[in-house]
Amino acid sequence: MRPGAALHANGEARMEFIATQLVNGVAYGVLLFLMSAGLSLIFGLMNVVNIAHGSFFMLGAFAALSIERWTGSFWLALLLSWIPAVAIGIVMERVFIRKLYGRGHLDQVLLTFGFTFVFVDLVRWIFGADIRELALPDSLTGVIEMGGIIVPRYRLFLIAFGGVVALLLWLFLERSRVGAMVRAGVDDAFTATGIGINVPVLFAAVFALGVGLAAVGGTVAGPILGLYPGMDIEILIPAFIVVVIGGMGSLRGAFVASLFVGLVDTFGKAYFPDFALFMIYLLMVVVLLTRPQGLFGVNRA
Amino acid sequence: MSAGARRAAGWVLLIAALALVPLSGTYVTGLAAEVLVFAIFAMSLDLLIGYTGLLSFGHAAFFGVSAYTVVILGLQFGLSGWIGVAAGILVSAVVAAAIGFFSIRVSGIPFLMLTMAFAQLLMAISIKWRSVTGGTDGLSGFQRPTLFGYSLDNRALQFYVVATGFLLVLWFLRRLIASPLGSIFIGIRENEQRMRAAGYPVQRFKLVSFTLAGALAGVGGGLYALQNAFVSSDILHWSLSGDAIIMVILGGTGTIVGPAIGAGMFLLLKNVVSSHTEYWLLWVGIIFILCVMFLPQGVWGWLRARRFGGRTP
Amino acid sequence: MDTSQRANAGVTVDRRRFIAGAAALGAGVLLGRAPGVLAQSRAPLKIGLLNSFSKVFAALGNANLNGMTLYFEQIGGTIAGRKIEVIREDDEINPQVGLQKLKKLVESDNCDLITGIQASNVALAAVEYIRQSKTFYLCSGAGVADLSYTGIPYLFRCSIATHPIHATMGEWLADNLTKEVVTSASDFAGGRNTISEFKAGFLKKGGKIVKEIYPPLGNNDFSAYLADMRSIGAPATYSFYAGTDAVRFVKQYDEYGLKAKSKLTGSGFMVESDTLPAQGRSALGALSSLHYADTLDNAENRQFVADYRAKFNDYPSVYSEYGYLAGRLIHLALQAVDGNTQDKDKLRAAMLALRVNAPRGPFRFNPQTQSPIQNVYIREVADINGRIANKVIHTVNDVVEPATKSG
What we know:
Chain A is mainly alpha-helical.
């Protein structure tokens, strides 16, 4: 397929095409946001680069699969699937990552990199290597026609869901007491300790929040992407690209960059299929070369 | 024994040990050659991680580009593998200079991501440019060159060629680290600001380090092509860059020889464990985690610390 | 190609094997037993199974191993008095790794023969080594056309060659459904080959390709391409995707309501047992071609499926059947030569002489290409007593691939 071949002379078809891509790009952006929000928070507050973040995305999805198999309910799965991932995340933070706070980024990257191997093989061991399906309730399947535009219901749900999560997250960080502590911690962990914030507990809580978001992301991604060992890395790389583009540690950056990357990836594949493989890499290269700290990043160097 | 005599004895011992490897049969010889190829690759990466403080996640690019150069020159132009290796090293150096030129503008995680992105770009090209690279199916049918009238199809000869390359790289790296240039690299690793304040053009030296590391990785890639007579896009995948990082960490960063030992450990571990269980990645992961937690100086660094009672220069 | 010069690597192996064989024989004679009389008197039969047991092909490799294990258990674990020892190695779908593991199996484990290799890139990378080392290799995986035309005497393939499978579908589709299709496949060698093989049959019967679409490998969203297919509105589409791509493509094809507009058809591998459970009902009605379906109604297959389910508590896949048949062919051929793996020419002749009723139907080797001559089935995904599976709607008997490699 040549560039632009997806387009048709028919203007109506073109509008329909663009609208469909818009919905898909935003839906993909929502998935990226659920991943990158946690990554960015954890980095911003704790200065930890969590390469195993994708693993929690996968753990969440497979926990949802188990819950759905037991209870037959997707909603219950969505409600509870983050629990195992968060439990594992807290153990990982307390037992392993905590020991490395004194060392540099490099060691955290390496440690969590090691965990990705462990998690992917554990999932394969328990669930097998087959691709699994997270089935949707009837209320979320099918399409909605809006002015001649076909939109799958689940994509709309995904966009709404992501919007609500983003809003709650914003309220939590900006309006709540804990949120204020987090913000204080992001600015300066040392001072935070001085004004009586229990930093270790705060760190554990934010780590749990981050991996919980990733797990929920995995759950809502399951019905679209399928479940399989390896889905962790597949989402991790674009999520990292989002965090780097948005600016490390910036939640606003993560939000904007998620949508940006989601749309660029989707439209890029449609209009320049020959470059589909490296469209978002190219985007990252361009952003980093013009603005090394990312779109919303503060220059920490 | 004086330090000089000890060093000389070390070299003699190493050369003698390598010379004897082909007695152990074709399979072990082949495996040993592969270990040495990856040892070169890991040592070249250590120049960045261990000596210049740059965590590159795209080092496979230079290894792969060189291997592709050897095979493509052989298949398309009928050039001998020897010319191929020379060209491969050159191409790797040029590509590394280009990628480095952009990547060193950022540091930390953005640097890691940029180097990975450039390597992925190259892999995408190798997948798409089928007429030249063979895409995912790769390129086979490369004829190995001859040495003194003997074909490199002979496993023992392959090993000696690779071992020679390994010794040269090892010697070069030791000289480099001991040189003033090496001290500047270490200075950048230890404290970039101070080096800058002292008037060193830090960026330029980072680029030199990146280019040198790329060229050395090209030595490994070129020899790998001679050994395997095959190349495919997997050789540019980020997971190979990841493997190299594991090798460096297992062996010990900033120790020159350490990553070579790490390469040996990694490949042997993988070969032994993967014959017994399909979940070998789990074990690699666990060992790697334990190593990062409890043996941050790596196996070689730990041994050396015990042997000499502390870090030796 | 100069093979005389390239044979070096194999010499030591052959010699060592010869010595081992001679020693076993000598021991047997000393103890006053003719070879083959007692299992203990003969060296074990080492079969190297190289396949993908990790990463995205893990399920395929394991199914292959299970099928072969099942067969060897059924025959009591020995062939011609030699105890069977299957040595399994993981190629990680990486040709470089596969080549290294192949060397291990041949040179270090001294395997008598090699089987397996699902990934076509691994198989292609292995060809030169197999040629040089004179390894006896029975491919029970990759269907890539090139393996049929290597001219290597000891290279057999019992799985499939993809050309007959896809070209047959092309002919059938043009004759029975429509002469206009949009094709799509992942943008890699396997995807492009599948489409060109399909076209060979489809164009021959007067079909016309309206458009060819190649999304990248490992794509997570097909909506851009589906929108394109939708606006073209051809009576049918023909596609090939594997693994997660297959799951996402088929699910999204259904999600966007395209099934009612353009009939979903494709390579059998797009809707096989590794992907069908995840595709679920969205795959219903999809037409495809393959040499096998687990619902095939013949005595051999009923028995195979029942035994497989009893042992593994799961339906066999096409990859299990590959392994099962490979085990059977190794058994029958080795029995014919009294377990002698040293005389490869004799073993080769025995292989070529085999005529087997396999679960997939009648099977024999094509003497030119040493790949299968077998039935191709046109199948439709259906709900069979609550299970989503392929049912056979048409059979084309004994399909033979082209004698030389076609474009």
